[in-house]
Task: inverse folding
């Protein structure tokens, strides 16, 4: 699964996610990637989020929208909200994976709770980071 | 004026020790760098965030290294079924597509659904009909063929199991 989140000069946020699903899937199984609010979500008031991992758990936890809600209604920062969702809420139901998220100030968070994460980012200072978390 | 920023991801799953060669690692990083640079170039030239995420994803979808577009994994039936979604945080518009085949860049179809249709989510044959209506060209099956993906599928196709992008069993013959 691949995904991207961005903040432009106007402070507008966007998120996109694309996937080939899971190897050997059947019965028309769909994961979280294409589900708005589960695997993909963007709202200028809070953040833009793209998820990757075992989709069934991300759907049940409504992960992307949950991050946004924690920011909007509980006043958490992007870092706090993403950590809470990935390391506590998702993990509590056995969900493995991670997400990338960005807010309107250009802050980036990329938490995960499993191996095999391929990530790249360019922050507001222009610092480029490319990493494979094994 | 706000500051620009961009992040991308490609995959989740277990990478067992020894599976990632130095050569492979360079290829993955090169593709990630090309994708993040392409998206960032749009932002730098005053482009919008929607176009930036689409541009970055197109490059990842065109690579066989990641499980999306060209690199999509095999289903139990030996086919490829792709899903994609996009959302604009400025107006909360969204577009999504599921269970499509043969489309080179599913993210473009998701964007077209967001911008050109009255709907948010199209799936399966209906989504394919909509793609045809918009003039999308279908890639042949061999465009999506990848030997590594094929072997991943062979290893579990009779097991009833399914697995994430980069998962490899401990006793895998191709790990």
Result:
């Amino acid at each position: 699964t691949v995904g991207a989140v961005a903040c432009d000069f106007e402070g507008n946020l966007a998120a996109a996610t694309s996937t080939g699903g899971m190897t050997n899937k059947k019965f028309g199984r769909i994961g979280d990637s294409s589900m708005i609010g589960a695997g993909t979500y963007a709202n200028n008031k809070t953040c833009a989020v793209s998820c990757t991992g075992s989709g069934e758990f991300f759907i049940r936890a409504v992960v992307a929208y949950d991050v946004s809600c924690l920011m909007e209604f509980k006043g958490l920062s992007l870092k706090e909200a993403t950590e809470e969702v990935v390391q506590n809420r998702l993990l509590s139901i056995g969900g493995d994976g991670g997400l990338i998220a960005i807010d309107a100030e250009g802050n980036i968070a990329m938490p995960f709770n499993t191996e095999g994460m391929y990530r790249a980012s360019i922050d507001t200072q222009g610092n480029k980071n490319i990493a494979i978390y094994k | 004026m706000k500051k620009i920023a961009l992040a991308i991801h490609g995959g989740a799953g277990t990478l067992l020790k020894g599976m990632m060669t130095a050569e492979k690692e360079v290829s993955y990083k090169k593709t990630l760098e090309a994708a993040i640079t392409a998206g960032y170039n749009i932002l730098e030239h005053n482009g919008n965030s929607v176009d930036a995420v689409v541009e970055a994803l197109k490059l990842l979808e065109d690579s066989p290294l990641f499980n999306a577009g060209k690199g999509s994994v095999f289903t139990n039936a030996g086919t490829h079924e792709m899903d994609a979604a996009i959302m604009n945080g400025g107006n909360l518009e969204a577009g999504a597509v599921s269970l499509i085949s043969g489309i080179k860049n599913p993210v473009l179809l998701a964007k077209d659904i967001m911008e050109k249709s009255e709907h948010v989510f199209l799936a399966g044959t209906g989504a394919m009909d909509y793609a045809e209506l918009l003039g999308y060209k279908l890639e042949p099956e061999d465009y999506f063929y990848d030997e590594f993906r094929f072997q991943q599928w062979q290893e579990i196709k009779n097991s009833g199991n399914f697995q994430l992008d980069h998962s490899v069993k401990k006793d895998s013959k191709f790990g």
